């Protein structure tokens, strides 16, 4: 049974509870420990729209993680429910959780399942992430801020801190100024890559020297979510996963997306970076 200090059952807070990953996390907790762990979920939507709340002991509706009101709401929930384990799920929430834990706003006694602060910040900033990965030899498509695009007739345009493919689209160079408006530094442009589009689910434990990946070719996508996939393994993508883990000092699970450019596989995004509060142990 998962227990905190003194043999008391864990109290786990799961953020972005409307996400499929949150539902899977709650199911896993219930499957392994049933009612021996108390699960608190939170989401921007009301409880009746959040499926994972059906399996949770408590549910809290909160503001957007990017809003000024969110940190106070989060800290209030952590204190009110005496949470000892917190699992944030979306990039902005992960970056905020890592920062609040690093500066002591979230007590050190709370295990925050987030990667190091620098990695959390990078994964919430696609421009910063691309530069960091490139410096560590991870293949990435040519990328620039939309304020200073590289010469091309067409780009793939993305919000710099976007999630779930929202706002991402192909864009002709002539249309770029109108699409980014007066905020070009909040957008990035990438070279056009070709399929297949593959999501790589990875796990890395540097302390034990262990890593594993499962690759999912996205066969059918609806609203940015893959609904049909082909599963396979690939040694090159496994090496790329370990390189990403090393560049970001990751332990635990994370996933990233790749497509192909003229050089081969290119990492188009690193998403859903999780972390472990301590190295894994068998």
What separation lies between the terminal Cα atoms?
A: 15 Å
Radius of gyration: 19 Å
| Major sheet | 5 strands, parallel
User: What is the annotated CATH architecture of the largest domain?
Assistant: 3-Layer(aba) Sandwich
Strand numbers in spatial order across the main sheet = 3-2-1-4-5
User: Which percent bin holds the helix content?
Assistant: 25-40%
The total count of helices amounts to: 7
| Low confidence ranges | 276-282
Provide the residue-averaged pLDDT: 89
What does this entry look like structurally?
- There is one protein chain.
- The protein has 282 residues and is α/β, with parallel strands linked by helices.
- The protein folds into three domains: 5-112, Rossmann fold; 122-140 and 193-271, D-amino Acid Aminotransferase, Chain A, domain 1, CATH 3.30.470.20; 143-190, no CATH class.
- 26% of the residues lie in helices and 31% in strands.
- The protein is built from seven helices and 14 strands.
- The strands form three sheets. It has a five-stranded parallel sheet with strand order 3-2-1-4-5.
- Strand 10 and strand 11 (210-222) form a beta hairpin.
- Helix 3 runs antiparallel to helix 4 and helix 4 packs across helix 5.
- It is globular.
- The two termini are 15 Å apart.
Write the layout of secondary structure elements.
Layout: E1 11-14, H1 20-33, E2 38-43, E3 58-61, H2 70-80, E4 85-87, H3 91-102, E5 111-112, H4 117-123, H5 126-135, E6 143-145, E7 154-159, E8 169-172, H6 176-180, E9 187-190, E10 194-205, E11 210-222, E12 225-232, H7 235-248, E13 252-261, E14 264-271
């Amino acid at each position: 049974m998962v227990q905190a200090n003194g043999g008391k059952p864990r109290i786990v807070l799961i953020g972005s509870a409307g996400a499929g990953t949150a539902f899977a996390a709650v199911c896993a907790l219930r499957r392994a420990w049933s009612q021996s762990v108390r699960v608190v979920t939170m989401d921007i939507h009301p409880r009746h729209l959040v499926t994972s709340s059906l399996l949770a002991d408590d549910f809290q509706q909160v503001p957007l993680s990017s809003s000024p009101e969110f940190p106070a709401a989060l800290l209030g929930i952590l204190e009110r429910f005496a949470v000892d384990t917190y699992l944030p799920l979306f990039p902005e929430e992960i970056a905020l959780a890592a920062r609040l834990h690093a500066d002591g706003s979230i007590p050190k006694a709370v295990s925050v399942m987030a990667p190091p602060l620098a990695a959390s910040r990078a994964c919430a900033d696609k421009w910063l992430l691309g530069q960091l990965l490139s410096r560590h030899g991870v293949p990435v498509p040519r990328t620039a801020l939309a304020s200073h695009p590289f010469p091309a007739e067409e780009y793939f345009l993305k919000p710099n801190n976007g999630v779930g493919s929202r706002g991402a689209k192909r864009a002709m160079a002539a249309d770029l100024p109108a699409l980014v408006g007066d905020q070009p530094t909040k957008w990035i442009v990438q070279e056009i890559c070709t399929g297949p589009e593959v999501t790589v689910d990875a796990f890395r434990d540097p302390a034990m020297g262990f890593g594993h990946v499962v690759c999912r070719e996205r066969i059918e996508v609806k609203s940015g979510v893959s609904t049909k996939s082909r599963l396979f393994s690939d040694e090159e993508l496994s090496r790329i996963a370990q390189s990403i883990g090393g560049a970001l000092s990751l332990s635990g699970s994370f996933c990233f997306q790749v497509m192909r450019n003229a050089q081969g596989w290119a990492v188009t995004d690193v998403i859903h970076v999780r972390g472990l509060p301590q190295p894994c142990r068998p």
